[in-house]
From TrEMBL:
Protein name according to UniProt: Uncharacterized protein
PROSITE patterns reported for this sequence: LRR
Keywords: Leucine-rich repeat, Repeat
Organism: Abies alba
Secretion signal span: none
């Protein structure tokens, strides 16, 4: 299901985490802004992702959660407290 879906807007849904395999691999644009996400995880298989909005969450570090997302052109992280 949803294998041709390109854009998903899940902003403002109080999402705490993204589980691996829960989103279609076909996504190009993913808006997860204004949620309660604490870590960038569950996104590795989204290798076609071009735009990712994680602004205004509770993310403190970037880590390797986007290692396979090599096509990303726009990454929004404003409003998080990211530190080394």
């Amino acid at each position: 299901p949803f294998t041709s879906l390109r854009t998903i807007n899940l902003s403002g849904n109080s999402i705490v985490r993204i589980t691996s395999g829960s989103l279609p691999k076909s996504l190009h644009v993913l808006d997860l802004s204004r949620n309660k996400i604490t870590a960038i995880e569950g996104l590795r298989e989204l290798s076609r992702l071009r735009v990712l909005d994680l602004s205004y969450n509770k993310i403190s570090r970037i880590g390797h959660g986007l290692a396979n997302c090599t096509l990303i052109k726009e990454l929004y992280l404003a409003g998080n407290k990211i530190s080394d």
